[in-house]
UniProtKB/TrEMBL annotation:
The keyword Cytoplasm is assigned to this record: no
InterPro entries: UDP-glycosyltransf_plant, UDP_glucos_trans, UDP_glycos_trans_CS
Family listed: Belongs to the UDP-glycosyltransferase family.
GO molecular function: UDP-glucosyltransferase activity
Name listed for the protein in its UniProt record: BnaA05g19450D protein
Length: 286
């Protein structure tokens, strides 16, 4: 069987799975959604169209896990961020399943050096089969990154393994986040008011990228497609747009960040939705 036939078979398998799950939604009494009404009003309105066959939807987000238990190395990273100027650092992190080939890692390194910005880069190698083995750290960065890169960049950047993402995004030094666009990462960036450049790698991330970039204008774009080499020029261009101070994207992210916090306050949209959910549960039990 060819590579394309393998890909087609996998697509059919996953499509069948998600179609079955979607059809089962109608069997539920309600659906909790990790978002806020102010972020996705059109989608929530569509799902709550009054159709008796459609279960009620409760937007109760953002639901976030913000507590980080950092080790010594991660604590040093956070201390380094405290020493950097506000809004000066580009943070690159691609989730638990995000990894890159050696060739792609070199392109990213070249872009970071060319951009002139400070950076914190969580880098891991791509897994041959991410469903069986998660990405791991490269054993020797000196061998895979451009010659002399680590020495040249030691004054303005760090290449690390696993990062305490929420703790990093909370730091005032972080001015932009290059992310795979997973929904948890997206909500964390909005919560802390950090604009993102989305680089989707797998799963639903291309849909998230379209929503954040094209529909909501809350992110800039690195590349819409996946599984292709993204050049240093494309990445550097995305970094420069991302880190532009006073941009419309940056302003919109700050505005929605405030709305995320208000949504969880007493009288906020998510608090109201949660109370409605609890009341509906109570009424159904009764």
């Amino acid at each position: 069987m060819s590579e394309f036939e393998d890909s087609d078979a996998e697509f059919v398998e996953w499509f069948s799975f998600f179609r079955t799950q979607a059809r089962r939604f109608r069997e539920t009494k309600g659906i909790l959604v990790n978002t806020i009404a102010e972020l996705e009003p059109h989608a929530l309105k569509f799902l709550s169209n009054g159709d008796s066959d459609t279960p009620p939807v409760y937007s109760v987000g953002p639901v976030l896990h913000l507590k980080n238990d950092t080790d010594v190395t991660q604590a040093e990273i956070l201390e380094w961020l405290d020493e950097q100027p506000a809004g000066s650092v580009v943070f690159l992190c691609f989730g638990s399943m995000g990894g890159f080939s050696e060739e792609q890692a070199r392109e990213i390194a070249t872009a970071l050096e060319g951009s002139g910005h400070r950076f914190l880069w969580s880098l891991r190698r791509a897994s041959p089969n991410v469903m069986k083995e998660l990405p791991r750290e490269f054993s020797n960065l000196e061998e895979i990154l451009p010659q002399g890169f680590i020495d040249r960049m030691k004054a303005r950047g760090k290449v690390i393994g696993w990062a305490p993402q929420a703790a990093v995004l909370e730091k005032p030094a972080v001015g932009g986040f290059i992310s795979h666009g997973g929904w948890n990462s997206t909500l964390e960036s909005l919560w802390f008011g950090v604009p993102t450049a989305i680089w989707p790698l797998y799963a639903e991330q291309k849909f998230n990228a379209f929503e954040m970039v094209e529909e909501l204008g809350l992110s800039v774009e690195i590349r819409k497609t996946e599984m292709e080499l993204v050049t240093a020029e494309e990445i550097e261009r995305g970094i420069r747009v991302l880190m532009e101070q006073g941009s419309d994207v940056r302003k919109r992210v700050k505005e929605i960040s405030q709305k995320c916090h208000v949504a969880l306050m007493d009288g906020g949209s998510s608090r109201i939705a949660l109370r409605k959910f609890l009341q509906d549960v109570s009424d159904n039990i009764a």
